[in-house]
Amino acid sequence: MTVVLGYDESPGAARALRIAIEVAAAFDERLVLVYGAAAPGPLGEEYRSHYEAIRQTGRAGLEHAVTEADRVGVPTVVEVLDDKPAQALIDAATRHAARVIVVGSWGESPMRGALLGSTPHKLLHMSTVPVLCVPPETHV
User: How far apart are CA 73 and CA 31, in angstroms?
Assistant: First the structure.
């Protein structure tokens, strides 16, 4: 089994990364780091340039996550997938027989997530694998 993490360097991602590393270490499992790289908009030349920029951004962010996991000895697998984030995470969780999907939240209201379709909201309704939704750090 594995732990799958959706990582995109968003405000909730840093804490989600720490939690995912802790869970993977506790169960002595691999951490599968996933970035959904579907570019917005119609197909065409503009789509291709957006798509490549999104993939490069994802790869750079995932390198940081790999460094953090390596620091504590958690083995990693990196996947930049050609899909929207929620579907990319569900697909990776299925392929890797995930114990849990870990995803950070932005601290947005449940209503906003339901209306706009946040990744955590989609996962909670679509995934057959348990989802751990990690809120961002609170600064007091």
Answer: 11
Strand-pair partners of 35:
80
Strand order, beta sheet including 76-81:
76-81, 30-36, 2-6, 98-104, 131-134
* Closest-CA residue to 104 (of 8, 1, 2, 3): 8
Contact 134, 105 (CB under 8 A): yes
**76-109: per-residue pLDDT in tens?**
999 999 888 999 999 999 999 999 999 998 755 5
Write the single-letter amino acid at 72.
Answer: V
pLDDT band, very low/low/confident/very high, at 56 (cuts 50, 70, 90)? confident
DSSP string of 47-103?
Answer: HHHHHHHHHHHHHHHHHHHHHHHHHTT--EEEEEESS-HHHHHHHHHHHTTEEEEEE
- Residue 124, Cβ density class (10 Å: 0-12 exposed, 13-18 middle, ≥19 buried): middle
| Identity at 38, one-letter amino acid code | A
